[in-house]
Design a protein that fits this description.
- This is O-acetyl-ADP-ribose deacetylase.
- The chain has 171 residues and is α/β, with parallel strands linked by helices.
- It has one domain: Leucine Aminopeptidase, subunit E, domain 1 (3-Layer(aba) Sandwich).
- Helix content is 39%, strand content 19%.
- The chain has a 6-stranded mixed sheet with strand order 1-6-5-2-4-3, with helices on both faces.
- It is globular and about 40 Å long.
- It binds ligand AR6.
- The site of ligand AR6 has 24 residues, from strand 2 and helix 1.
């Protein structure tokens, strides 16, 4: 049985987080990319891609999540999830909230207690930032999970402030 997850907000680089699992904003092919995905593959090293190829020969559906090794990052696992590409016309919000729910389900299967999330779809995929933040905060706060701490990692100060005020309003 789950309980309330503690939601923390930090500013920094997700690849440097000392947590059990870091979440990657991947794409359907699951062979790397730019943004957080590029940073995670660079920091984790070639083991991450090798594990992606082994575990996801056919890629991953939008809204779904799955795991690999974190290679040489401090975390033990990467939980990859694929957000909807707003810029390409994928605007079904339930696909975005599904990314957070499915990532926490995978974390529960792994026994991960601390999980760091980027703002899924809010970069290259172009989801409007304030709504991407609302979707993340709402969904994590409502999740039934054994994860103790979910850490939302903002790359820049402006995003950090926006997330902090959204979390403050939700509490
Ligand atoms: N640590 C934390 N946050 C970061 C980092 C980092 N190292 N780097 C970027 N961000 P994005 P998406 C922030 O573009 O929109 C890739 O090519 C960034 O500022 O990484 O879901 C994939 O392969 C933004 O707020 O993910 C896909 O093709 C957030 O992380 C596509 O991009 C997410 O930005 C996915 O696009």
């Amino acid at each position: 049985m789950g309980h309330m997850v503690e939601l923390k907000v930090v500013r920094g680089d997700i690849t440097r987080q000392d947590v059990d699992a870091v979440v990657n904003a991947a794409n359907n092919r699951m062979r790397g990319g730019g943004g957080v995905d590029g940073a995670i593959h660079r920091a984790g090293g070639p083991e991450v891609l090798a594990d992606c190829i082994r575990r996801f020969p056919d890629g991953l559906a939008t809204g779904d999540a799955g795991w690999t090794t974190a290679g040489s990052m401090p975390a033990r696992w990467v939980i990859h999830t694929v957000g909807p590409n707003y810029s390409a016309g994928e605007r079904d919000r339930s696909l975005l909230t599904s990314c957070y729910r499915r990532s926490l389900e995978v974390a529960d299967e792994l026994g991960a207690r601390t999980v760091a999330f980027p703002l899924i779809s809010a970069g290259i995929y172009g989801w409007p930032k304030e709504d991407a933040i609302a979707a993340a905060v709402e969904t994590i706060a409502a999740a039934d999970t054994t994860v103790q701490e979910a850490r939302l990692v903002a790359f820049d100060q402006a995003t950090f402030e926006l997330i902090r005020s959204a979390v403050g309003q939700a509490q």
